[in-house]
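Case 281 in the screening queue. Each case pairs one protein sequence with one candidate compound; here the compound is zinc ion. For every case the pipeline is the same: read the inputs, emit a complex structure as tokens, and attach any notable structural observations.

Predict complex for case 281.
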Amino acid sequence: MDIKNLKCNACGAPLHLDGPIQVATCEYCGSTIALTGMGWKDLKAHSMLIPQVIDQGGAIAACKAWMDRGFLHHGTFDKAKMIEAKCEVVPYWIVSTSANTTYTYQDVKEQAAMMGAGIGAGALLGAALGNRGGTTVVPIFGMGGQGAQRSATIAGNYQFPVIAVRGLQTYQPKEYQFDLSKRIPYDKRKLPQGLNVLNGDVGEDDAKNAAKSLVNQLESLKAHQQHRMISKLDTQVTVGDSELLHAPVWYLKFQLHNGKSEMLVLDASRNAVMNVPPPTK
Ligand SMILES: [Zn+2]
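Case 281 output:
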């Protein structure tokens, strides 16, 4: 099929596609088609988020407020100069994934305690059962020969966002989830005028594969945040349904006082920075 002459299935308007597009939204009626193994198909599960900040000043203020909430760059952005800013409505594949990770680690503290005055079992148990950051960590007490070798499991469910635009993959979030409770069926008329709505060139199957490997990395990161000296890390990721979400995103490039520059990617639907870890406090 000649992609240049492709027409919208719903209203018949020309789609003016250029290049290897995999997901296209009609600029007249908002219908979306996606390229599948069976050709172009209407995409029913297509939603969007509405921006809260649409002016540059608001976006900069939101970034600075985010940074000032205890992030380690605290103060860095006070003197930072904004050198580039743009807002676009970017397609993401939201992929339902669930993951189960098991690993073993050396419990250094316990080892030290055992060498000292014996095991404070109650205290250790309390610390180990703590629920950190929404992920349930269940330690499995295997004393083994060394005493301090333990196993743990991490279970996580994600609505993992995969950027559907290859050219923007540098900004793929590693650990971010949109507030999907705020999403509404896609309707371009509900977006502020003049915002650029991007088509995607990443297909749904590729997005599912990407989500699988990104969730793998995230689970490993979580394990390493919990414990040191990890071995035998094994993650099973199950990928479920996916849907397309158009989300308004600000790209803000700041020149820092040390001469370096940093790009912040702001989810304009809830004023959260997506490409750096959230503040710990
Ligand atoms: Zn149309």
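Case 281 observations:
- The first strand starts at residue 23 and ends at 25.
- Residues 117-134 have pLDDT under 50 and may be disordered.
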